[in-house]
Amino acid sequence: MAESATSASTNSGRSETPAEAFSRFLENLPLGGRNGLIVAVISTVIALTAVIWFITRPSYKTLFSSLPEVEAGRVVEQLVKMNVPYQLGVGGSSIEVPADRVYDLRLEMATLGLPKKGTGVGFEVFDQGNLVGMTDFMQRMNYQRALQGELARTIESIDAVSKARVHLVMPKQSLFVTEERPATASVIMELVHPLNAKQAEGIVHLVAAAVEGLDESQVTLLDQKGNLVAGGQQASKDGRMGADESMDMQKQVEKSLENRAQAMLDKIIGINASGVSRSIVRITADLDLSQVERQEETFNPDGQVARSEQTSTESSKGEFGVGGTPGVRPNDANDRSGAGASGSNQTRNVERETINYEISKKVEKTVLPVGTIKRISVAVLVDAKLEKSDKPDAAPQYVKRTEEEMSGLKKIVEQAVGFRADRGDTIEVSETPFAPMVASEEEGIPFWKQPAFWMQVGLVLTILLVLFIVLRPMVQKLMENELSADNSGVPAAVAELEEQLLAEGIGTLPTEQPIRMRVPDRNIKLTSQMIGEHVEDAREIIRSWLALDN
Question: Where would I find the beta strands (DSSP E) of 194-240?
């Protein structure tokens, strides 16, 4: 007894080291607490490791993007040889490397000729191999291949074009003009976004200017889906458009006119509280989609102008006989002038003048643009006016506009759309109360009938199911281990309590066997568990009991 008291006093007098304090802290923890502490420590270590890896990992930057598979493979092969870490993205068409080496690697790849722009060969085909002994046909084919490859590379340099492939048909020149055939070209492109009309026209000009004898009308452009972008049968020789192009032009003209009129009406009538215009304008335009070339020649007879004038003068001097024609006897017998009579010396002058006049002529050549407006039909629907009632609680009432107001609106629309009565244009302006704005169908559906609600419910149920399947067995196992540990530890706690009581000279606890005979085992386990959790309180209670017995 004295030895134990001395040992206890010695232990209480010596200060605990941090290791001993932590060890005692772990011993006092239940099994569930120990497991939780271990899980927390492991989670902290994993989190710190992830943070350190994220902070210290190298930052990657794009080296090349939108690469063909072949070129991407060549670049990756070279990076592996250079022991450079890399990452692939966007389906393998993008290559990323450490950010501090991007520019150096680009220069090194450029010196190696990587990546090659374009999928075909260019004029470098003539730098490879021996040209000696090559036939004329092979030279022409190599030239055609090189020209196709160079055109494809040039077209791929456009931002909207990802890939391009060019096919040229270049007939052999003939000595006979009647046997000559025009050159043709077909271009298929993989587009990043659709081309506008100007871009398509520019590509057509580019191809036509690069090939000798190629006319722009013989160039056809297709996209990756096989849609005709430009050329082909898009426009016929007489200048008429195709059905799709004519419909697009008609829609553009109608939309432009509608926007003009709508903008004017919105300034006058305004919009409602929901931001919707209080007027509706619809226009149908009839267009002349044929290209007309007209030539006129006008002559003005009153506007004569002397184009050229020629004057000649002839002078002669000599003897000219008189009395008639030589060798013919005159009928008058008294006439003494005979054929042989001699004439006197005379001078004769002859003057001739020739003037050429030109009638004024005017030649006019007119090419009418495609898509001129033949006539338009305009329909305007205007919302009725809302006026507040004199009564404070009454709702606003619809009031129709006067004839002068409607006539003014009609004139405004006519001026906005370029209305012409001589062209056969028609316009109709009507007024009617617009229907009030109602909630959309989706807003009126109860929340339990909306798909989004059931998607959320399904997500919550899935999470609960995972927790039930995965975590429930773990929790049950932890509880069983904790309960068994507590039950096994209670006798030790009771024995320790009894030892302390004996050391204090109070007495001993009753034996366990009589208690088991009177009390069920379940109550004994619960009591033991409570004593293990509240040792100090149990010691005070037992001490008071023993004191009462004494």
Answer: 214-223, 228-230
Report phi then psi at 18, rounded to 5. Answer: -55, -35
- Single-letter amino acid code for the residue at 33: G
Could you write out the three-class secondary structure of 340-390? CCCCCEEEEEEEEEEEEEEEEEEEEEEEECCCEEEEEEEEEEEECEEECCC
Q: What is the per-residue pLDDT across 76-112, written as a single tens digit (0 to 9) for each?
A: 888 899 898 888 887 777 888 888 888 888 888 888 8
pTM: 0.40
* Structure confidence at residue 59 (pLDDT): 80
> What are the pLDDT digits (tens) for 435-493?
776 544 444 556 666 666 677 777 777 777 666 665 566 656 655 655 555 554 444 55
Contacts (Cβ under 8 Å, ≥6 apart) of 286: 373, 374, 375, 376
Length of the chain: 550
Distances (CA, A) of 149 to 152, 172, 184, 349, 493: 5, 20, 16, 84, 91
Torsion of CA 336, 339, 345, 348, to 10 degrees: 110
543 HSE (CA, 13 A, CB side)? 14
- Please name every residue paired with 97 in a beta bridge, in sequence order, or none if there are none: 61
